[in-house]
User: Fold these one by one.
Assistant:
Number 1:
Amino acid sequence: MPATLRSNPNDESFVAIDFGTRATRVALARGANLVRVGELLGEQEIPAALALAADGGMLAGSEAFQQQALFPRETVLAPKLLLTSDPAELGGRGDFFPHEIDADAPQLLRLQIGGRLRSAIELAGLYLSHVRRTAEIGLERPVESAVLTVPVAFTPFDRQALRLAARLAGFRRVRMIDETTAVALAWIGSGFRGRLGVCSWGAGYFGVSLVEASPELVRVVAATGDARLGGEQIERALASDFLARAEEALRGTGAKGFEHRTHVARHLLGLAPGALQELGAKGKTQLRLHLPGEKTPFRHVYERAALDAWLAPALERAEEMIAALYGDLGLLRGDVDGVLLAGGMTRIPQVRAALGQAFGREPSDAVDPGEAALRGALHRARFLDRSDEEAPLTLDALPLTLGLEGQGGIVTPLLRRTEMLPASVVELFTTYLEKQTEVGVQLFGHRGLGWEKLARIELAKIPGMKEGEPQLEIRFAFDEDGALQVSGQETSRGRPLGLDVRPERGLTAKQLAAAEKELPGEPEDGFQDRLRDELGVRARVQLTTLREVMRKLPGIMTRDEKQLIAAKSQELVEVLEGGDTLEMQTCSKELSEAAHPVLLRVYDKSLEALLR
Amino acid sequence: MKCWNCSNPLDELLVCSRCGMPQSVGVLGPFDAFGLPPKLRWEEGELLSAYETLARRCHPDLFRAHRDSRVLTASQTAMRALNDAYRTVRDPESRLRYVLSALGHAHASTRTVPEGLQDSVQILDRVLTAAEKAQAAGDRAAWETEQDHLASLQVKVENARDRSNQMLRRIAEEWDRAVATAGEEWPDMSDDWVDQAVRLAGERAYLSAVETRIGEARRKPVETPA
């Protein structure tokens, strides 16, 4: 397959990236077929993990993921979630979020990691950079254009942050697609005409939308989402409940291990998704924790009732959001021709049933919950490349209703979530004091369940005039991806205004503009040189990692494994000296394959070994 | 006006019918964007389908792979203008607001209590405030007691909405007749028509606001644990 890819290099075409909370998948269209980048490199997906060492070393993807229990403080999981997380809430998670949070930046999440402070945007950028380079290795061509999935729950400012992260990662052209829209596109076959209810509910986010589809056009009628309903919350509930029970049971028995609570927590978080799946499917699951110094492991059996209790508030909220969506559009429950569900949460039978009830229609079972978003993103990628002339155009809706706070604290909608992107609106403001030079305006967002603060807009450098005289014209412009730009001027004297936007989370407009100036320029080296450098870096990281594993966990390899890995490492070292990129890639892949069983064991056994 | 790409005189404002290139037009009237007369009455779906036909010719996703970056920029401007135009005229109420503001009555949508509701305004506000308070406090019992009042008030609001719809039909008919006879120009309307239309727009603004508030006040409160 690499040969056919090389013979048809199309450097400009868009790749599809399903940027997930847990893992990311990349695919490319080859004619009407889907080529998965992971398959070219021997893995289905790229785990969403990033490890940063103080010496500047970085691991990402599966290597970072496999060793997370060894280095919990240095390994950040789910960089995407960090973009929408509240620093104070993360700080309250204790051992379940063992990173030092910068307290000086309540709006912008920053972690002290790898020897310095890094913002959520930087961390997401580093991870996406790994994703991009992995795609380049797999496809053997530059990858700079991407369609990126985004949860509906991302606010206009979260979308700006995500785009900046992608630009930091070296993507030059980025087009987003709402996860729910992608799920709809993946399902809509030729000839379908009607209205669909779509829900995408994964580890990180909940999103729903109503979509009108015809063979010529797909139109998102309205969409809504929640960034605090992800499955990860329920997993954390399970893990912390189990940890509390274990501590209670083992108190005073002399069990070691709780001084390494962070490691235990990370280990339990790793077990939680599988346990929840089993609980949903079989109605019962058992968790166990074997600590050194204990003859028998601590066990606890969870029954369906526990799952129901954890799910209840989330399901109630999900049902309300779906009801509000129908209500906003003047539709009745059940006014859809089909219901599509995707994302890990929708594999749980109770969730499926509740969503079917809320939509008022049985969900289709023709959707692969893990694949749909990637396939839909690929549809958009092919559309952008104009490689599929038959494909329908998709019109996206605003991610939320934008509102402005006026006198008396009453919020008035400016642009509703049923409007289509791109969209803009101009509002006039004035001063209420003589020679007032500054005015503040509060922006709100509405997703169907009340107004939430979005950002504060600060206008400055207003020319000194009588109260009520300045004509302050502020333009709110959404682009195709649902990101928001705010600009303004004083029109009676034609002066530009000083204007800053301070979102509830993320960068201010001024910080964003400064960061965009710093973006990497065109790389100077040719692609082959860069590919070679990247392969070299990855190979060296691979070698160091394996040495580190042997040092920390001396007993983890059998003699045969040790010999095989030593031989493959030696080959790789030699190829690094003078081999070509193909040889480097082959040797590195062989070493990965040899090390794979060992690294799997690292994930499982590292806790035990560490505490021994 | 000429197409920036092929210099052909434009017979449509958003996209050149000769070379198919989207146009970076500045401020334009919403009906001009569609090339349609400023009528208030349209068949269900008629404007939506005009909108969709244009969207399929000027959406930026059609031009993202174009080598000339000016094309993408033009399509973004054109699509934004199209969306803004469609928003302005998509429903009868927004069309009325637009027509009135174009006639120089920009503040026509200042909320005005409809005649049939004037006696109920105070009680409506009291019940809504009580229900909202109960919601905020997570007090389901207090919320329940307001629901019967709310339901009967909602019927009154619905009746006012029906009367307002009849009025809107009359106003719109008169306007559309005048548009048909005025040709290219905007019609001159009587002071009486303008007064009624301004009052109607204000009443509808009030109704929408109060309907939203009732809708939210009828949502069950989330009970806070004791």
Number 2:
Amino acid sequence: MSSEIDFSGWSCPLPLRDYPNIVLGHGGGGKLSAELVENLFVPAFRNSVIEGLGDSAVLRVPPGRLAFSTDSYVVRPLFFPGGSIGELAVNGTVNDLAMSGAHPLYLSVAFIIEEGLPMATLGEIVERMRIAAHLAGVQIVTGDTKVVEKGHGDGCFVNTAGIGVVPDGREIGPGRAKPGDVVIVSGTLGDHGMAVMSVREGLQFDSVIQSDSAALNGMVEAIFAASADIHVLRDPTRGGLASSLNEIAAQSKVGIALSEENLPVKSDVAAACELLGMDPIYVANEGKLVAIVDESSAERVLRAMRHHPLGSDAAVIGTVIAERAGMLTAKTKIGGTRVIPMQIGEQLPRIC
Amino acid sequence: MKYLNEFRDGETAQRLFREIGRITTKPWALMEVCGGQTHSIIRNGIDQLLSEKIELIHGPGCPVCVTPLEMIDKALAIAAKPGVIFSSFGDMLRVPGSQKDLFRIKSEGGDIRIVYSPLDALKIARENPGREVVFFGIGFETTAPANAMAVSLAAKEKLRNFSVLISHVLVPPAMEAIMSSSINRVQGFLAAGHVCSVMGYWQYPALAERFNVPIVITGFEPLDVLDGIRRAVIQLEAGRHEVENAYGRVVTFEGNKPAQEMLEKVFHVTDRVWRGIGMIPKSGWSLRAEYRDFDAEYKFAVRNIVTQESSLCRAGEVLQGAIKPTDCAAFGKACTPRSPLGATMVSSEGACAAYFNYGRFVKVEDLATACPAK
Amino acid sequence: MCLAVPGEVKEIYEASGTRMGRVNFGGITKEVCLAYLPDIAVGDYTIVHVGFAISRIDEESAKKTLQMFHDLGILEEELNAPLPVRDP
């Protein structure tokens, strides 16, 4: 949860100290807004672009194709074991860029804050974003803040958008899976979703499950270093692995066949899913990727992933096939076959 | 997880499939009563690997599926009332009423909260003394003790703002109704293991005797289900019709006495309409008069509910095992998990949803070639 | 119906006059109402449905069942060349 913020590192802490909570004025574009930018955001995200305080960030980017992605983060609660909306907002967009094969470079961040949110909470979120951006090697160069009336905002919503550059020669995308390809996942499934579930009102339980939120661009580079024959990269966030693979199967017009017993799941995540009647294959991940690669590259790519700190549990989980195009199936542990469909809406805990 | 993983062992499952194949000489039709068993069968592919001679007919043991339409509409009406906090198990959120479902009510501003246990709903009531908190108390005999405890504690604490919408259904009367039906094809039952962990199985010998059917109390993990099938087939092949307990690690003949005492204290038997099936006499529980203050049906003016079931929906026939979901013209077309016409397509263990989600609209043989052995 | 999960009782206590406990399910723990199992003890296993322990798991019975499954394998060997079921 939020800890004491060290105000002394900021250039002019006094105005912020007068406001323990966010008020409507902080989003109004006037003096309060300016103070928030100057005393909270700029010092946290410190770089020459943001310090310019221009209406837009003017950037020089290396040659190549530009990758551009955006995502909004509405997670509740704002803080959960292993992370917060801050890490999600940075890592999520960094990962979307990385999944296209891009080197992520710059992020924008837009806050929509509920009136009354404690300043310390916002400060903690911003600090987490600073650290995440630093770890990912990206800079946050522009942003916006709006404040809504109490009762309309769930505390804090964040949007990030990001740009990156895709080096020539990288042609990956969800439509590029081919029969014969090998499906590899970088680690255990369902950690993030169950970490959030563990602190959700009405469902909470005690565990050491941590969100796996992490920037994957480093591991993606390691994958490309191992082989040029990467067909698809995807980070299975909302909807879990099942949703990502269903989408890929549909876009590539192929079938994907998994082996259930090869799916890596931590035992306490599995236990939490048992308790709530949920299936880890549908639970969100925030620091995992699935790679679909040419058969000949599979061994090298797997090794490269396993060597990377974020990929130590990487495993081959299935193959791409020509039959049953658009469908995701799995061999069950007892030798049967199940179809794994797209889920309808959010997976809900069940008693039946 | 202990007591879970051991009963999912693949090699042992294969062994049981072969054993069942070895002992089955004639065709038999078995019904697994509990929706959780249906879920386990379809999800693990047990029906695909079972001897062709054995037909599994899926029973109406899905409380979500059989909760009467009128009760769903009452729930929706209560949930839509301003100021009410409506709490429910997750399963009920997407069940279609005559017009809407709880998710729709939520999007229209209703305060609807998913809980894991009725005690969580009680907690919400204690923490929100100014709001009316209602809990949707559905379920079979397994869930009834939990709901009863919530009511009992509310009464003890004199919680003025808590009430329960009770819609319990009972298994033995349903089994009796199925066996008495002229279209019944069921020759043996896999009884609901967790219902029996509460109620025991002293109610079954009379049924087995009267209708000449073997009844095997069965669990839920793949090996439990296979063992239940194996024992039922052994009996059928030998012409026996006894009650047998294949879930001995959890179920005893008498069941859970303290739970049964609480049930007796809080509920009384009532006639109950089963959605898609019709009225089965003495097949439900409702709150006793002493607990009227906690009975949401009385607390809220939810009369004049006009129910309207889809004319295309054949959930009732599916629930009785008369047809397979694939026999229904609407299956997979007008009726899918995204746009369900009836409850059997909504519930994760409803036969229609299970068939759709686990691919039973694809022929089993085709499915097999789709997944080369790894 | 009836998703009930096995767990180990780690702690038993009273809360507002009701017998409650902490049950460990494969690494995660949750508060569970033990009112319906007045004789259950710490270290016992129970199955839990919607936050209520409804039955104690009989370890002996579980062992017997698993042993019986194991013996089926021996029986199969004795019978030699078991009849195949249709290929999955």
